[in-house]
From TrEMBL:
TM annotation in the entry: 26-48, 75-97, 103-122, 129-148, 168-189, 196-214, 234-253, 265-285, 297-317
Molecular function, one GO term: magnesium ion transmembrane transporter activity
Keyword field contains Transmembrane: yes
Name of protein: NIPA like domain containing 4
Pfam families: Mg_trans_NIPA
Location within or outside the cell: Membrane
Amino acid sequence: IVSDLSPQVPSNVTSTSWKERFRQSYGFYIGLGLAFLSSFLIGSSVILKKKGLQRLVASGATRAVDGGYGYLKDAMWWAGFLTMAAGEVANFGAYAFAPATVVTPLGALSVLISAVLSSYFLGESLNLLGKLGCVICVAGSTVMVIHAPEEEKVSTVVEMAAKMKDTGYIVFAVLLLVFCLILIFIIAPRYGQRNILVYIIICSVIGSFSVSAVKGLGITIKNFFQGMPVVRHPLPYILSLILALSLSTQVNFLNRALDIFNTSLVFPIYYVFFTTVVVTSSVILFKEWYSMSVVDIVGTLSGFVTIILGVFMLHAFKDLDISQTSLPHMHKNPTPSPTPEPTVIRLEDKNVLVDNIELSSTPSPEEKPKVFIIHS
């Protein structure tokens, strides 16, 4: 009925509209490809940096966790650093072409790539609960990002500066900065080498500032190519300084975490906390809660609880030897029948011994007499 009521469209018009739709959405596919490339590069960079830190320990130099910077002279570590930088550039380009609700969940692929490559090149392994915890973390982060509301449109540097001058965001940024300084100067020297969460939380909190700076610089680059006078505005220079400081701090503490703890644990936990802090910062900076529905609120809370459960499984059961072979099987093997025990006559049982002698000494008509010898 609908096809009869609708007017007939010529075939050439249909092909033109299909080409136009493809031409309009090719940017989305470019962003999707850049997101996949970014995940592969970032996941591989962790393996290269870990190999460089292992070579540093084998040479007897001061470890990164003890304040040493010998990894700056290692070619393998620099290969990992440049690979991670290339991955971040690809991720930056992905955010420019595709929406964040698509790009951010694809960052979970770097966790899986890192876990697979670490099992081949670093000899590390996760038990069954660790693998399930990794999958739960990725699923929870994906649900949390999917139900997060869309960002408010910010197209100029002036609008971005107005957003960053908001009182709520300033209070949030100051609280994050104070919390991070407490972790760096008080908690990290005492518990950093024993608790895997200390260094990772520092990287995640600093990462929220780096993501805000990257978004602001992305808007600056767009305005520059649009011919706007962004060079005279002080915000791009401030954001560049924030980005340089945050990236150097992240690299330092991420190296310390990789130097002590298992790569298969460091990278998933870092991804979970980083995603959580970044989403929270975006909600406060862009006032995203105004567009949240009840379904989105429930989905966000459910994703956050799922992330907590996944982190607990990763961290609490990492030392248990649990694999798929240790699980109970579906088919039970038939139990063999018990073998009959031989009859043993003890010398202490005199009555039984005498009765057996008397019965045996009486020959049957079909058998010949037998001789029994008793050794005392």
